[in-house]
Amino acid sequence: MCAKSRVPAPGTGGSSLCSEGRISLYCFVITATLVLIPSVPQILYGMVPQVWGAVLWGPFLYYALINMIIRFVLRNHDYQVAIRASFLGFAMAISVLVICFAPTEWQQFGVYGCFMSLFHYSEFLVIAFANPRTLSLDSFMLNHSVHYGLAAAASWIEFSLEVYFLPQFKRYGYIWLAGVVLCALGEVIRKAAIITAGRSFTHLVQNEKQSDHRLITSGIYAHCRHPSYVGWFWWSIGTQIVLLNPICICIYTLVSWLFFHDRIYVEEYSLLNFFQSDYVRYQKRVPTGLPFIRGYLID
User: Fold this and answer.
1) Which residues are bridge partners to 51 per DSSP?
2) How far, in Å, are 96, 116, 237, 244, 245 from residue 175 at the CA level?
3) How far apart are CA 83 and CA 90, in angstroms?
4) What distance lies between CA 296 and its chain's CA centroid?
5) CA distance 53 to 283
6) What angle is formed at CA 98 by the lines to CA 93 and CA 103, rounded to 5 degrees?
7) Are 2 and 216 contacting, i.e. CB atoms less than 8 angstroms apart?
8) How confident is the model at residue 184, as a pLDDT?
9) Three-state DSSP class for 290?
10) First-residue to last-residue Cα distance in the chain
């Protein structure tokens, strides 16, 4: 279903997490906690090892042990959920350790890692709460697309090369903090959109209107027609500002804009077929929320 319509129901989602949501939450939190606990004294007292990467050896062993336990306790779909949530919890913990112990020019990569881990895990968790009927392993969005993976890899390569050749540039004027603000703001906007849409939200665009669908124009949708895309757009750009990747900032901005421009155009064509004059009035009253994107308009 698309995020702009919903099935009428009491509330916007379930009153509590479904079983997959609880399993994922336990695995995410427990893995992150167990990986971080041995390093707490070093964090508190600032005991940075001479070879900072040495602080990561232990956590990798703990993570391997945690995965063995998960494999022993859980099976089938529950195991698949748990192993992904555990991986994201591990990635979050490692990112915190990078922030605490890495050389200054690498600490931003830890901040970036925290935002990436949180984004992917919270996608699954919020869907598990708001619309558990559509929950699947794809809700983690770890396998979003080949292009998404290539874009992430490109940002890592650019960051690594610039740290090696221009390490002083990576902390220039604390500009990267603007990326922290954009990532946090984008995350909040996107998750607010999912919760507001509730049981109708999925990661897929709907092509057929169900008989009990109605248009949402309240909450965050009263301010922009596509808040989930708005949040994701600014979050993606924010990640590259955090890394201070000038090339990827430009590429991410252009590619993200083109992607959402086309997606909104196609989606609004369906929405106009679904809701007709109601959606036309909504379009006139509320912008898409993305710069220079007007959507599919009827002259």
Assistant:
1) none
2) 20, 19, 13, 8, 11
3) 10
4) 26
5) 53
6) 170
7) no
8) 98
9) coil
10) 27
Average per-residue pLDDT for the chain: 89
Nearest Cα neighbor of 177 from 121, 231, 112 is 112
Residue 215 belongs to what H/E stretch? strand 214-215
CA angle 292, 298, 299 (to 5 degrees): 95
Question: Contact 128/21 with Cβ under 8 angstroms?
Answer: yes
The answer to whether 58 and 66 have CB atoms below 8 angstroms apart is: no
240 close to 252: Cβ distance less than 8 angstroms: yes
Contact between residue 42 and residue 101 where contact means Cβ atoms under 8 Å apart: yes
Which tokens belong to 22? Answer: 């609880």
**CA 70 centroid distance within chain:** 24
Give yes or no for a contact between 185 and 115, defined as CB atoms under 8 angstroms apart. no
pLDDT score of 53: 59
Best CA proximity match to 124, nearest among 29, 227, 205, 20: 20
Per-residue pLDDT tens digits for 72-97? 999 999 999 999 999 999 999 999 99
Question: Nearest Cα to 161, choosing from 246, 261, 252?
Answer: 246
Between CA 111 and CA 227 the distance in angstroms is: 24
Q: How far apart are CA 81 and CA 173, in angstroms?
A: 41
Rounded distance, CA 127 to CA 135, Å? 6
